[in-house]
Each structure stands twice: as C-alpha cells, then as structure tokens.
Amino acid sequence: MKLTILGGGGFRVPLVYGALLADRAEGRVTRVVLHDTDARRLRAVTRVLAEQAAGVPGAPEVTATTALDEALRGADFVFSAIRVGGLAGRADDERVALAEGVLGQETVGAGGIAYGLRTVPVAVDIARRVARLAPGAWVINFTNPAGLVTEAMARHLGDRVIGICDSPVGLGRRVARALGADPKEAFVDYVGLNHLGWVRGLRVAGRDELPRLLADPTLLGSFEEGRLFGADWLRSLGAVPNEYLHYYYFNRETVRAYQEAARTRGAFLRDQQARFYTEAVDPGVSALSAWDRTRAEREATYMAENRESAGAGEREAEDLSGGYEKVALALMRAVARDERTTLILNVRNRSTLSVLDADAVVEVPCLVDASGAHPLAADPLPGHAAGLVCSVKAVEREVLAAAESGSRATAVKAFALHPLVDSVTVARRLVEAYTRVHPGLAYLA
Prior knowledge:
Layout: E1 2-6, H1 13-22, E2 31-35, H2 39-53, E3 61-65, H3 68-72, E4 77-80, H4 86-99, H5 109-133, E5 138-141, H6 146-157, E6 161-163, H7 167-178, E7 186-193, E8 196-204, E9 207-208, H8 210-214, H9 217-220, H10 224-229, H11 231-237, E10 240-241, H12 246-249, H13 251-260, H14 265-280, H15 287-300, H16 304-310, H17 324-337, E11 341-348, E12 361-369, E13 372-375, H18 383-405, H19 408-417, H20 424-437
Parallel strand pairs: 1-2, 1-4, 2-3, 4-5, 5-6
Antiparallel strand pairs: 7-8, 8-9, 8-10, 11-12, 12-13
Helix pairs in contact: 1-2, 1-17, 2-14, 2-15, 4-5, 4-14, 4-20, 5-6, 5-18, 13-16, 14-15, 18-19, 19-20
C-alpha cells in the first residue's frame, strides 16, 4: 500500500513513520513517498527516517520527490501536512496581528485567517490533482487550519478527505486519566469545530463520569485544561473546552502574554527548526538524535504563553508525545482493513449539528470503517457554544469565498466578522499588512 506524505520535509513526519514501523499487520503501508517543495528539508527528514528504520525488518520503503504529480500518482492514502509560506510565514502572521492588538495564532483569529487565505488555493489544487491522478485515494488532512482546509478539499473530493487533529485526543486522554479511567475504554462526547470544541461527557461502561470531575476541585486541578481555565469556569460551562478556547475565553490575557513574550511561537519554531535542518543534513551528525532533542523542546514549550498567563505550570510528561500520528494510523487501518473504530475527526456535518448545514466540516466522534468516517449523532450545543461555532463557521465560509473569488473585500469581511477582531478598520489594516508580507496573497484584488 502506498502512502504519499505532502509536506514530506516537515518536522513531524518521523512521528508518522514511527507509527508505520510499529504496524506489522497484513495490508500495512509498504511504500512511503515524501513530497516537499524544499529538497534540503526532504534530505534531512529522509536521513531521520533511515535511522528510524535501521534494523527494522520489512520497514516501509521511503522515496522522496519534489514533483507533486509523481508523488500522487497511484497513491492509496495521501497525508497532507503542508505549510504554505513556511514558519517564516507563521511568524509574520503573528507579528502583523499583534501589532494591531489582536491574536495572531496560526489557526485562531487573524493569524488563522491569513494562513487560511494563502493555504486554501494550494489545498484546492492538490484536491483536484488527487481526483485526477489517484481517484481511489483517501486524503488525510492535517494541514492547518484543519477544519477549513478539509472543507475546501471536500468540495472536490467529497467524503474521501478526512481531517485529523491531536488536540481532542489529548484532551480526552487527560480527562480520562484525571478520572482514573482507561482512555482506551472511555467514549469522549466531544463536539465542535477544529480547535473550537468541548468535552461534554466521558462515558465509561455506559456511565457519564464528567459530572464527578466537575464537582471535584482537586480532580479539576490535576490536569492541564483544569488549571488553564480554572475550576469555577469549567463548572460554569458544564464542560471541558479544547485548550484553544483559551484564546477566546481569556483573550486579553493571552494577547498581552504574546505581546510581552521575547519571541512569538512561530518565530521560536522558525529559528529552532532552522538549526535542526542545518544539523540534520550534516553527515557527521545523527539526524535522529537531533530530531529527538528538537522535538522534546518543541513539545515542552507548546502554548507556553497561555499556561503562563493562567498560572497553569509546565506540561505533564504524558502530554509530550504527540498523538496525531496514532490517529492517522488508526484511520488508515480502519479504512484499508475494515477495522471498525471510533475516532474524533473533521468530517462533513450531514445532520450531526442542527445549527450547521450538511456540508459544513465539524469535529466530532465518527464511526470509521471501509466506507469511510461516519459522524455519530450528537445532542444540540448549548446556546453559547452554538453561537461561537456558527460565528466562526461563517468566517470560514468567507475565507473560502475570498480564496475562490480573489475578492479583497470578502477577505476584509472574513477578518471583520471574527469574534477576536474587534473593528472593521482593524480588519482592513490587517488585509493591507498581510498582503504586503505574503506573496501568496497577491491574488486578492
């Protein structure tokens, strides 16, 4: 089975390959094709994967190419993890937004909109190529903003594109651990959009254990989201929000923390990974060891500004191992081998959330089998959550419209309607500033 990884020179590719190495079942991936526009990054990551595979019998064969059509042709699965504009673009997204006093995070608020506007045209081109060159392939999208990009690709690939994210997985795992439950045995009632969802229940043997968690201050203080949001706020919500909702519920504090930081997250990763890629192509250096060191530092500093502003402390050791690669592998196994499983995924809504239309991509538990991912029925969202979900989905639709039409006015509308952008005037200045720094937004007129 052939797996093509777009963004194959990306830093987290070794996580995916490591998961593939551990899969010994029949029908597993035997060939991995890495595609990237940067040949140097491909060389670095290929070296890491070669060290990972050393001594592993039957390790999937790895090839690398900068030719997109060649990479896609005949693929069974396509894993998309591209970053249009690179980490320098992410750092610019943050800098421009913070200069206007608004959030510049890569998937939330102004930064997410800027990233989406330059990513959607590229993702749509990929979707069209997949439909032509590998019509039987399943596309697993991890490209951010994941929900928005998945919806853009679904307009050309239908249900054969599925978005994944490790954030709900990590949240469900932490809630289960806090309750003393085995995460593998618990059903997580999670619903929303990508980076905008809530755990509303955690059922073990048919019993919802979340009320017990919300009633116990000690348990609430034992995991990251409990410390991040505070016990009183979680009890008020009656749910545990995805960590990214900290940007909404504590926006002023977060923006201030980002403005006061020595470097933004994007600038930190840009500089950190520049060092890694230089080191990893050095023949005298173990590329795998360099990657391990860099990854440990990367994970430990994740959302550091939010944790600092909330006094939430350091990340727990169990949360430093990622998880999206496990979701990707479980998804591929379920589809390729009909190993039925339940995963939280980004898929078309159908009738799951009554406040959204059928084609809106949502992030919910899905039953996955050989025919794809099928969203499970969900109880209606409470008013506050429904309002936020509808507002952000409306912004995503304006981003899609701007990317399709090239309309600068529609791009301004997308920024202005976002809950974290508080002025039409600011929205206009954001579009002007982003089009100056991002060549990928030259299409807006």
